[in-house]
Write a structure and sequence with these properties.
CATH superfamily of the largest domain: Putative cyclase
Order of helices and strands: HHEEHEEHEEEHEHEHEHEHEHEEE
CATH architecture of the largest domain: 3-Layer(bba) Sandwich
CATH topology of the largest domain: Glucose Oxidase, domain 1
Structural class: alpha/beta
CATH class of the largest domain: Alpha Beta
Oligomer: single chain
Radius of gyration: 20 Å
Helix content: 25-40%
Number of strands: 15
Distance between the termini: 40 Å
Largest sheet: 9 strands, mixed
Number of helices: 10
Number of domains: 2
Shape: globular
């Protein structure tokens, strides 16, 4: 039972109980992604039966969820060369050659993305117990930059469609705290097991609702999500990563008074868990419901932006 008045105590207890500090050595930069080894990837590759791919990313455009909180904005896409320039402007190329170019400006965590290991600290400590001011400076994440994850995030994906199993019309209401028991019940309903090295995707249905009713407070407001009490499950199952269709992965409002993202404060700096947010799981979830198969090959490489603490991602599930 959580004591709503004591987030500090609950965070400290969960951090001590679930810590992976030193598990892969003092120099580790991958955290739980270490659980995805060659055997796990070969197992995942064998899950491909039909070669059907699904992108699990929202589109990156101005019609996105961001409202400016902490200077997070939606992407701004600008053309620097166009067909008009080619036809009317004279681009200076020989023999009729023409082309188009473009540029995009956006926060790295404005839409479908991974939280890197340098994204969240606990009392000034980053992943593996390092002092945060020695890890992330104005030059970026000098130790656990997202570039280290550019290759290894590929393996067995497992979808837990909690919205479909636990909710009405495939959606959980805002403020619904998904517990370990809920996750277990959803896995049982799907006939799938969760274990070491898996990349677990939890669909709540909130993105479905946002698409229907408008973005509203999707970015930072109330949401269904994982309960703080799932910290033990996230650690004990030895999963490599977890991602949801919500802005913040954990339930909002949070389960404590005067708290902000307490589960983040445990799972990223202490467990070393890779966390994904704002993934688009709707079309894929419908396909899984249709064929009854909730395990698949998943590749979800971040952009290797040197020193970044998060990155956009276009996850691709293949069945």
């Amino acid at each position: 039972m959580l004591d709503r008045t004591d987030p500090e105590g609950a965070i400290a207890e969960a951090a001590a109980r679930c810590s992976n500090w030193g598990r892969w050595g003092d120099g580790d930069v991958l955290g739980t992604v270490n659980f995805i080894d060659g055997a796990k990837r070969r197992e995942a590759a064998a899950l491909v039966r039909h070669g059907v791919p699904f992108s699990l990313s929202q589109r990156f455009d101005t019609d996105g969820p961001q409202k400016g909180w902490r200077r997070r904005t939606n992407p701004v896409h600008t053309m620097t060369d166009t067909g008009l320039d080619a036809v009317h402007g004279g681009q200076g190329f020989p023999h009729g050659f023409g082309g188009a170019d473009d540029v995009i400006a956006m926060p790295l965590q404005c839409s479908t993305q991974w939280d890197g290991l340098g994204h969240i600290f606990d009392h000034g400590r980053a992943w593996n117990g390092r002092p945060a001011d020695k890890v992330v400076t104005s030059a970026g994440d000098l130790v656990t930059g997202i570039e280290h994850l550019a290759a290894p995030v590929a393996g067995r994906g497992v979808l837990l469609d909690a919205g479909r199993v636990l909710g009405e019309d495939g959606e959980l209401p805002d403020g619904f705290a998904i517990t370990e028991e809920h996750l277990a019940a959803t896995a049982e309903a799907h006939g799938v097991a969760v274990g070491r090295g898996d990349i677990v995707l939890v669909r709540t249905g909130q993105l479905t609702r946002a698409r229907r009713d408008g973005w509203g407070d999707y970015a930072g407001g109330p949401a269904p999500g994982l309960s703080f009490t799932t910290a033990g499950w996230l650690h004990r199952t030895e999963i490599a990563a977890v991602a949801t269709d919500t802005w913040g992965f954990e339930v909002r409002p949070n389960e404590f008074d005067h708290a902000f993202q307490p589960l983040h404060q445990v799972v990223i700096p202490h467990i070393g868990l890779l966390v994904g947010e704002m993934w688009d799981l709707d079309a894929f979830a419908a396909h899984c419901a249709g064929d009854g198969v909730y395990e698949f090959f998943l590749t979800a490489a971040p952009l290797p932006v040197t020193g970044a603490v998060g990155s956009p991602v276009n996850p691709v599930a293949i069945k």
